[in-house]
Amino acid sequence: MNTIEFIQKIRNGEIDPAENIARVMEEISKLNKEYNHFNMIADDAEKQAKNINLKGRLAGLPVSVKDCICVKGMESRSGSKILSGYKPVFDATAVRKVREEGGIIIGKTSQDEFGFGSFSSNMGEGFETPLNPVDKKRACGGSSGGSGGITAKISFPHISLGESTGGSIASPASFCGVTGLCPTYGRVSRYGLIDYGNSLDKIGPMAKSVSGAALMLEIIAGHDKNESTSLDKPVDAYTDYLQKDIKGMRIGVIREAFGEGIDDEVSEKVKDAISRLEDMGAKTEEVSLPLTMKYGIPAYYLISTSEASTNLAKFCGMRYGKTEELEDGFNKYFSKVRSSNLGEEAKRRIMLGTFARMAGYRDAYYIKALKVRSMIIKEYKKVFKKFDLLASPTMPSIAPKFSDIEKLSPLQQYMMDVLTVGPNIAGLPHLSVNAGELKGMPVGMMMVGDHLEEKKLVQAGGKLE
Ligand code: GLN
What we know:
The protein has a domain at 3-241: Amidase signature (AS) domain (Amidase signature (AS) enzymes, Alpha-Beta Complex), CATH 3.90.1300. The protein is 39% helix and 14% strand. It has helices at residues 3-12, 17-35, 45-50, 93-100, 145-153, 170-176, 210-220, 264-279, 290-311, 329-341, 344-356, 363-383, 402-405, 410-415, 421-425, 454-464, and strands spanning 38-41, 62-66, 104-109, 159-164, 179-182, 202-207, 250-254, 283-287, 389-393, 430-438, 441-449. It has an eleven-stranded mixed β-sheet with strand order 1-3-2-4-6-5-10-11-9-7-8, sandwiched between helices. The two termini are 15 Å apart. Glutamine (GLN) is lined by residues 115-118, 143, 164-168, 196, 304, 417.
């Protein structure tokens, strides 16, 4: 039964939401002992199920939420020990909308600390690493690893809210074999999202199918008076595009994304998927994005760490989360709180970001990266004059083994995002769908659309599925 049929059955009274959720909670508690897809499982899900909006568009649907998205009354730590004990007094706008439509919040999914990672292997102290749903020796991808893992593993209809700064929805979707839809920057309100890089962060759905992702986006998208960067533009009926023909749709196949550094077998799988789109009437042509593919990674890692290093300054042991003994004045106190409660990768990013925007280096690094970002946006805009969508693999490989990840330097880890940083720095919507299997592991294909063209992604993704 797919998500849409399930919701229909709840609305008709054929399925009892409380009975269903009791079974869901039993399953996820069991799964979590083995896979660690949740940092926190809701203890009030059955209570929520008794009071839902039975006419809502998500009536009775279990929804998991990445840890960085605030859920009222539920410890929301963004995967960091420094936020231990922080229980938001409000719901993020996306969560509020889910509840208004009858969705039931089942838990907070695991992630790299504050979103700093591509494998969900940079976990804050006290957090368990989520394991790949297909092979436990491998990573879920990151940073929305728990969302990807549980979406693949759960046997019930369910959708997760993930978050992407540089690829965190697409990466776990690809490694876990699910659909991840990262919307245009500003399409979904960031109100209540614990920030990583404000000019980059997006909340988006992860689902077993394109239809589930389209439905969820329809609900969470839209302007929010609490969030000034949320776009005041009408929201499309994405689900109407699921069955639309793709005859004549122009798809640009990104040349550099099939070249050096990308696994040949992954490339082959994705090319097969592209030829299926051709069989259904899409017109494909090779296209080159030289600037984006070459400078996307350095620009992204300079901008994102610069923003992260300022955002993390608020975690100083005064307002939120962990505190330490106060001695020797406030400066010592702040250092103590931060050095004993942030993980290694978070500290690395604070140092890198602080350096990049320091007087004397700012022009050479941070400002230059912003200029490169503008050029990357121009490069995409030019290409979108000719194409409706762009296609490439989502990740350069299948989900790696933890034993191989350990051997990678931080820089090699950052390189995993080579295909996803482009649309993320340009604020473009992108969709990762499963394109087949390699050695039993899922392979993801990514499509990128122009700003606010999520509907075209749904159209092509829906056809492919
Ligand atoms: N891997 C990227 C990073 O570490 C992306 C993470 C994200 O999108 N949250 O910054």
